[in-house]
Design a protein that fits this description.
The complex is a heterodimer of chains A (252) and B (246). The two termini of chain A are 33 Å apart. The mean pLDDT of chain A is 90. With 252 residues, chain A is mainly alpha-helical. Chain B has 246 residues and is an alpha/beta fold. Chain B has nine helices and ten strands. The chains are: A mainly alpha (252), B alpha/beta (246). At the A-B interface, helix 7 and helix 8 of A face strand 6, helix 3 and helix 5 of B.
């Protein structure tokens, strides 16, 4: 971490000296143009965060729904989970995004529905779907890590399947599920950059647009990387706090 | 005619290709105390687990309070209201306090109010002699205390039959008697019970009926008197000799 920051600082400093390689003026907050550019770039932050949060929330609910049949004793019901996870996990994000954004409206049209998908919701649907295969596996592993005797004991005091999950299994599993789920959120934030290719105005899209007008890819993409870095570092600090809290709960 | 609390008629069960239960016939009358013993792997735990449908049997009939156990919702309902279970590993809910462990079933499965459920929980904690532990977590209790909480948790559902699956096998030796004492008290109060155990002194004290199992079959049944002093089968004799040696 420290090595990385000093490397970044070194790059910036060397760039300030030799202006034939670096042209920091495009994002220099001291100049009026630079300030306008920075504001333009950073304004995409809200969209990136909103997109990631909504997609992650859907994925968290969808993942649980997909995980539950995977825990069944019956092979046919387990198959629902396996087929979903294997297929969704195998589709690369970008083709899925194209399919949802360009393809899905045509499917709707063939069904007589006139539904257009805007870039924001196209990206939300794709990210949530793609991520749900991974959250489903996180849930399944977490729930399976709770000893079988817990579900049996719940059954002997009269709890049905849903109540057993709600009051006995999930409250215990959540400590093992939350940290990896939070890590998965970092993955979503990074993957949200793909939304730029269908024209959603988030961080990456704005950087691309500015590059086209300023012809300064090195400086602008450097700033873009720093933007993601700050976002992800804040989230991982949150994840670490969460892990510590979960750990101390378990001991207590 | 008094109805049998538990009836098993020609019950077979397989785990894959392995037959764990072979033609089990077994009757427990209301108020009876039955002790099942036998070497490990003989199927004695499986019998108990089939009675409350933690395992499904493949052939034969199991009736609980006269209701045929076929996995239907109504049959499971009958188990829920008739049969309590105590496990070897206690299986207390570690994320809940002792009190919360006890009121969970009565409140969430039976719809009792918290006040009533807690009053009932205190009554049974008193019964197992640990009312002062109500607000601790299971991990703060000794093994013997945990098993007594588990017994109280079952009693809170006010079952007609209690099943004990090796209730003292996971305990340190000095804690065995505090758990057995509680079970003896329950027996004295007239609770119908089926106990899988290797504690032969306890068996002799409480059992009306001894059942000896080996290799998935019931080899011998009888009163403790006959069973311990004059076992008929060779296998029973060998088993008793081994287990009573020390």
């Amino acid at each position: 971490m420290r090595a990385f920051l000093s490397l970044a600082a070194l790059l910036v400093l060397s760039g300030c000296g030799s202006s034939d390689i670096w042209g920091w003026y495009v994002v220099n907050p001291m100049t009026p143009t630079g300030w306008v550019n920075i504001k333009f770039l950073v304004n995409g932050m809200g969209a990136t965060i909103l997109l990631s949060v909504i997609a992650a929330s859907i994925s968290i609910m969808l993942g649980l729904l997909v995980a539950l049949p995977g825990l069944s004793e019956r092979r046919r019901i387990r198959a629902i989970n396996r087929v979903y996870v294997e297929i969704i996990r195998a589709i690369p994000l970008l083709p899925m995004l194209f399919w949802v954004f360009y393809g899905l409206p045509i499917v709707f049209k063939s069904m007589g529905l006139n539904i257009q998908i805007d870039p924001f919701w196209g990206a939300v649907i794709t990210l949530a779907l793609s991520d749900s295969a991974f959250t489903a596996e996180i849930y399944r592993a977490g729930i399976q890590s709770i000893a079988k005797g817990q579900a049996e004991a719940a059954k002997t005091v009269g709890l049905n399947y849903l109540k057993t999950m709600r009051y006995v299994i999930l409250p215990q599993a959540i400590r093992r599920i939350l940290p990896p789920l939070a890590n998965q959120f970092i993955y979503i934030v990074k993957m949200s950059a793909f939304a730029s290719v269908i024209g959603m105005q988030e961080l990456t899209r704005r950087a691309n647009e500015l590059v086209v007008t300023e012809y300064r890819p090195l400086e602008i993409y450097s700033l873009l990387i720093v933007e993601y870095l700050v976002l992800v570092l804040i989230i991982s600090a949150g994840v670490r706090r969460l892990e510590r809290k979960m750990g101390s709960d378990e001991r207590g | 005619m008094t109805q049998d609390a538990i009836e098993m008629i020609d019950v077979d069960k397989w785990f894959g290709d392995f037959q764990v239960l072979k033609g089990i016939n077994f009757h427990v009358k209301s108020g009876d105390k039955v002790v099942i013993c036998g070497p490990s792997g003989s199927g004695k735990s499986t019998v108990v687990r089939c009675i409350n449908r933690l395992e499904a049997h493949q052939k034969g009939v199991i009736k609980i309070g006269g209701v045929v156990q076929d996995g239907s919702a109504a049959a499971l309902e009958a188990i829920g209201s008739e049969v309590g279970m105590v496990f070897q590993q206690f299986n207390l809910f570690p994320h809940l306090t002792v009190m919360e462990n006890l009121v969970l079933g009565p409140m969430k499965a039976r719809g009792m109010t918290r006040k009533d459920a807690e009053a009932r929980a205190m009554k049974y904690l008193d019964r197992v002699h640990i009312p002062e532990q109500a607000h601790k977590r299971p991990s703060q209790l000794s093994g013997g205390q945990q098993q007594r909480v588990a017994i109280a948790r079952s009693l809170c559902m006010e079952p007609k039959v209690m099943l004990f699956d090796e209730p003292t096998s996971a305990l340190d030796p000095e804690m065995i008697s505090e758990v057995l004492d509680v079970i003896v008290e329950l027996a004295d109060e007239g609770m119908t019970m089926v106990v899988v155990t290797h504690e032969m002194g306890f068996a002799r004290k409480v059992a009306d009926q001894m059942v000896f199992m080996d290799a998935g079959e019931i080899v011998e049944t009888g009163t403790p008197e006959d069973f311990f002093t004059a076992p008929k089968s060779k296998r029973t004799q060998t088993f008793l000799k081994q287990i009573l040696q020390h």
